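Recall the central idea of this unit: under ordinary conditions, the amino acid sequence of a chain determines the structure it adopts. In this exercise we apply that idea directly, starting from the sequence alone.
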Amino acid sequence: MIVFFLVAFLASVVGAICGIGGGVIIKPVLDLLHMETVSAIQFLSGCTVLSMSAYSVGRSRLAGEKQLEASTGAPLIAGAVAGGLAGNRLFALVKAAAARPETVSAVQAVCLALITLGTLIYTVKKASIPTKQVKSPLASALIGLALGLMSSFLGIGGGPINLVVLFYFFSMDTKKAAANSLYIIFFSQLASFLVTLLTGAVPDFRWPALVLMIAGGVGGGIAGRSLNKRMDGAAVDKLFICLMAVIICMSLYNFWQYTF
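Accordingly, the structure predicted from this sequence is:
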């Protein structure tokens, strides 16, 4: 059982530093270790990311940190909530259509690998790519919708794609993008979690695993937030790139093991 805590804690430390949500590490690691069913892993990962992001967002608000601009943040969050609901429904549809549960994990793994690869390429090349400054509330809401959908369907919280989208469309620096990403992760995961509860779609899972993972998620959020304050943007970028390479390798391996 201690493995659940360690995975959640270490993933959430890195997730809080980079603003990507620990689920992008938790999900492929638990898939790799076959520690629970596909649905249970999805649920446990989502709960852990929700707890970590809730802590990080709550602390940020209490500290009076204003990294979220109302003109872009509110539409992004509204879109993320709608995306969280859509992603939850999409997962249910794919699961129902799949011949076996492992097929769902294979689909998620290849999607995560492709998204992360695109994100890695952009991150390496971003110095030469002009960014935009989206002002339209509708455009911001649609961007939030896409991010929320991917977050909920893949069970990763938000992942590296959040940061790249915020870099490109809103010209945010690394730390500001990380703060905004955590808001998107929190609200999309909250929407997905509430729908799961209200529809009675909570899968069978082990309560000790959930408790340990939530404790690890909050503990990791505390440690990651502290480390984030001590690191400059360049250090966060380097950690981000290394993490994406690891995620791609794990996702490709998971796709292979669930397909073949």
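The chain is about 80% helix and 0% strand.
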